[in-house]
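Here's my example:
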Amino acid sequence: MAVNSEEIPANLELLLDVPVSLTVELGSTKMPMKEVLALCGGSVVTLDKVAEAPVELLVNGKLLARGEVVVVDNKFGIKITEILGGI
């Protein structure tokens, strides 16, 4: 994503190259280790969200945005639908 340098305050420019961990969370579940060890190709794990629910975008573990899963050129992506003030 391109950032217009005219929109960035000079004191923030130092942070633009700092790497952060970006995570998209589809959902989660808890299961006993016995069931985890039994997982194999083709196994289905039920998550705590319905299929239509927005996914969450986390930056360094902090919720930043929500969005929808999209497929572009056979790769998964996220279309941002809501920006939150979480960082």
